[in-house]
Specification:
5-stranded mixed beta sheet, globular, binds zinc ion
């Protein structure tokens, strides 16, 4: 499970009432039973005792804080199992009972951020900063939420502060520089939005082209959502359109890369000579990137490269006769073939022709899995990844096969 954007809570020792509490239904009795359960790591049990104490003594700051801490730990355990919506319910209760405590607001904001509910994330993180101005976690998360919401200058203001007081925050310097690079390209872009998408684009893009991109995206939203059996990521989904030159300046990707999804869909509308891309090419690229949006929505970022790219390729086009022939030649000449080698990001790693082959192999592998075992297995596999399972374990659990046997099947199929 990727914890980069999750707030890791501290273990806070709960407070006992020291006064003699012997009456069975006395709030202090419930509180102290809750403390015992909490210390034993039984948070669900602690929650139920503290809730009883809270019902009898709603104004006790000790009970409120203990109940809040128990909710936060229970939420943390749900998130460990990938169950964000349950975790969020606990935290909404936590901020209600202990509304002067910034910690549950920050935790809640980070979970909304992780589940792409940007408006709610921003609201909760801004509240956290009102309660506890200067909290570095809250400012960093809020910067990330603004960034995801494509408000680059607000993001920069938050991160400027964080980098000033805590220059060694892991990964933040890189994200800051990336945002700054994008801002310098996109500062005068026009903006337009639909129900699901927000698009930023250079001023010289004709309205008809912008409208064309919207209808491609709306179609992808419906068609890909349906292919996955009804998966529809929440709005807004950000799409940034560029010229080919702006695209490589903002993303630093090599020029053979056709588009990218890094939390926002980024795509050039022109080739490097400055000609507008033809509609079918644009549709293929946008659909490919939109599949990444859906995959990320299900898995977080816990997905091997070949699965992610294979799905994006498989759902945006079919293998051509020529590509099938290329695969035949490749599999015949290659005695051993490894999906493991295609686990991590291959962009800017492989030469263009090797990268092309890596996409073809991923496409072929996903086609094989989808055609032979169906959608529900694939969805089960992706959900297992979303719950934080290591990918070979998830694969074995869902498909009852190991990767080596799928590699053998691919070789047999194409030879
Ligand atoms: Zn891709």
């Amino acid at each position: 499970m990727c914890h980069r954007f999750l707030y890791l809570i501290m273990f806070v020792l709960p407070v006992l009432f020291v006064a003699q509490a012997t009456a069975l239904e006395h709030p202090a009795t419930y509180n102290n039973q809750g403390v015992l359960a909490y210390k034993a790591g039984k948070y669900a049990e602690a929650v139920s005792y503290f809730e009883k104490a809270y019902r009898k003594a709603p104004n006790s700051s000790v009970v409120c804080r203990n109940l809040c801490n128990a909710y936060q730990n229970e939420a943390n355990e749900y998130v460990e199992r990938g169950e964000f919506s349950k975790a969020i319910r606990y935290l909404e209760s936590a901020v209600d009972v202990d509304s002067k405590n910034a910690s549950p607001f920050i935790q809640l904001g980070s979970y909304y951020l992780r589940t792409d509910k940007l408006e709610l994330a921003i609201q909760r993180l801004e509240e956290a900063i009102t309660i506890k101005p200067g909290d570095v976690d809250a400012h960093e998360f809020l910067g990330q939420a603004y960034y995801m919401d494509n408000d680059l200058s607000s993001a920069r203001a938050q991160w400027d502060y964080v980098l000033e007081v805590a220059p060694d925050r892991p990964g933040l310097r890189d994200r800051y520089e990336k945002a700054f690079r994008e801002e310098s390209v996109e500062y005068d872009f026009n903006r337009w939005k639909s129900r699901h998408f927000r698009i930023s684009y250079p001023q010289d893009v004709p309205n008809s082209m912008r409208a064309g991109v919207f209808s491609i995206l709306d179609r992808a939203y419906v068609n890909i959502g349906r292919k996955f059996g009804g998966i529809y990521p929440p709005p807004p989904i950000h799409v940034i359109l560029y010229s080919a030159a702006q695209f490589s300046e903002a993303t630093q990707l090599e020029e053979h890369v056709g588009a990218v999804y890094d939390g926002k869909i980024r795509a050039p509308l022109t080739d490097k000579e400055g000609n507008w891309l033809p509609d079918d090419e644009l549709e293929r690229r946008m659909t490919h990137e939109y599949v990444h949006v859906v995959v990320r929505h299900i898995t977080g970022k816990n997905v091997p490269w070949w699965v992610n790219e294979g799905l994006a390729e498989s759902m945006s086009k079919s293998l051509s006769a020529q590509e099938i022939e290329q695969l035949r030649r490749y599999f015949s000449d290659t005695p051993s073939f490894s999906l493991k080698a295609l686990e991590s990001n291959q962009l800017n790693q492989l030469a263009p022709s090797d990268l092309r082959m890596a996409y073809l192999q991923s496409h072929a592998a996903v086609d094989l899995l989808w055609n032979r075992y169906g959608r529900s297995k694939m969805l089960g596999f992706l959900r297992a990844l979303g719950n934080g399972l290591e990918y070979e374990d998830a694969f074995r659990t869902i498909y009852h096969r190991n990767l080596a046997s799928i590699e053998r099947d691919l070789l047999t199929y194409y030879r």
